[in-house]
Amino acid sequence: ILEGGVLGVMRIAFQNMESGGIDATWSKAIEGLRHAFRRLQQINTAARARRNVQRHYDLSGDLYRLFLDEDMQYSCAYFEQPD
User: How many Å apart are CA 14 and CA 32, to the nearest integer?
Assistant: First the structure.
């Protein structure tokens, strides 16, 4: 954006979507393509799943020892009173 800001860009986009802008057919087609592209990006192949597991779960025990108790357990519960 060379002049103005994001709000100005959004105004132009919405004005172009009104009469004389993108008609409903093109808008639906664009939305369909966007949805299809997003679905393709989300395909979880075996290789991608393996890579995700390595990145998120194959971490050293030293990291977990920083925030887990002696039994390597944790709880996300919150109690206002100890009882």
Answer: 19
List the beta strands (DSSP E) in 21-60.
none
- pTM (two decimals): 0.37
Count the residues in the chain: 83
Phi-psi region of 20 (alpha: psi -120 to 50; beta: other; left: phi over 0): left
Residue 35, SS3? helix
Look at residues 2, 31, 37 and name the one whose alpha carbon lies nearest to residue 17: 31
pLDDT in tens, 1-52: 678 888 888 888 877 776 555 667 777 888 899 999 999 989 999 999 999 8
Measured CA to CA, the distance from residue 45 to residue 49 in angstroms comes to 6
**Torsions phi, psi of 55, nearest 5?**
-70, -30
